[in-house]
């Protein structure tokens, strides 16, 4: 009979995962969807370098605005919670975060460049997470990592089948990290980093879930790389009362215009 042995640290790690999962299940699950009324035409990228490789499977389509034709859902919208106020820089209060969710195990995210586009193009991460950028394409790429935190930016060439581990862990900031490729200027990626667990990125149908949210009135922010939902007025988000086991929100129609522009 084979006896399974686990180290003391393995048991602690397992218990931490179970505790974090339980804490996430205790709060409210917020479910929602971001849509567009009119599905935009898919734009073709103007390829200025390595066209034989980038367009080997046909014209290269832009990934900036991805909308599902059937559900009208918008992919790559980052949704997060913040206090019910209008103070720039305020993050979710730490004393409202369940203790088990305050210091999660760090995650290493991966961004690849297989077909002359960053995949994923938009990434939400938590402070302490790390990043590896890969190049699985047959041509070299350039990784221009422009972080809003001083001392964390770099610009490096990434050869074929190579990968680059970003040295510093992510630090929370209210501005997104921009990644580009100088060789292929249409390539772009954005990363937003939070110091709390209450954020999500919409899937291909524009849907998202945020788990373990404590009851109360919180502002929900919707951000696409094209801007905040409702423009400047959306920077602070929209007040929402959170209570119960599940909160099903009405679909939000993404709009980059200010409220006064609607008058």
Task: Please provide a written account of the structure.
The protein is mainly beta and 263 residues long. It has two domains: 27-103 and 197-263, Immunoglobulin-like (Sandwich), CATH 2.60.40; 105-194, Immunoglobulin-like (Sandwich). Helices cover 10% and strands 32% of the residues. It contains three helices and 17 strands. It has helices spanning 8-26, 51-54, 99-102, and strands spanning 28-35, 78-82, 108-111, 122-126, 130-134, 141-146, 154-158, 163-165, 177-180, 188-194, 199-201, 207-213, 216-224, 227-228, 238-242, 246-248, 252-253. The strands form four sheets. Strands 2, 11, 13, 14 and 15 form a five-stranded antiparallel β-sheet that branches. The radius of gyration is 20 Å and the shape is globular.
Summed up, what is this model?
The protein is mainly beta and 263 residues long. Helix content is 10%, strand content 32%. The protein folds into two domains: 27-103 and 197-263, Immunoglobulins (Immunoglobulin-like, Sandwich); 105-194, Immunoglobulin-like (Sandwich), CATH 2.60.40.420.
